[in-house]
Amino acid sequence: MDKSHFNTFIFSNANKIYYYVFCILKDHKQSLQIVSQTIEECWDKRSEIAPTDLHKVFQLARKLAKSNASYSNVSQHSTQSDQYLQNVNPVLKKFCLLIKDYAPLQAEVICLRSLARLSVDEIALILEVGINNVISILANARKMMRSAIDPVGVLNDFSCHELLPKYYSGNTSIDEEEQLRLFVSRMDLTEIPDADREILLMFLKLGNAEIPVEDSEMLTSKLKELQTGKIKKAFSKFRKQSK
């Protein structure tokens, strides 16, 4: 990819990368640093990455995030007070609290699907598991989330939309899930069960959210410095802003 295509590719997906890394690390500054490192490594390997290779970017981000903190430490961190989620998008904060007791792979699958909106095939490549495993994990994670929001509810009221049974089986396509989100955003909200409405609206809001402006500007500045060969200056500036 040339510089122009690379910049468009990276910054159109920066929010998705951030959400995914944040769901692993539960720390804004660390997550932003991983996103920055991911951008740098992708720039170095740009000749090996095509615009259709988004899974390669997430594979790299995952590797960097996991090397930054073990899942056991993240799990221990997440059971403490929600102080670690201060100054974070409140909808993202709610999502992280809902998945705090999920197994790491469950949390990653539902994040990659519902926040990053990646295909089942892409998720399977990133996590190095089978496609059927991704579908099964996604189905279980969605039911767990619904149960957390509505613990006394019964998962059998699908009459309001034909795609809901398919959604909870983990078999909907990205386009079908977009149909569900549009349905929720436009319809009479009394027609759909509270838990389903809350979940789909949460994902809708997160899908339209962005990294804070100051952080986005910092990442843009970092990339410009990398592309002009000022790597040492870029590292120094980023580390100062991350402290």
UniProtKB/TrEMBL annotation:
Protein origin, superkingdom: Bacteria
SUPFAM superfamilies given in the database record: Sigma3 and sigma4 domains of RNA polymerase sigma factors (SSF88659)
Listed name of the protein: Sigma-70 family RNA polymerase sigma factor
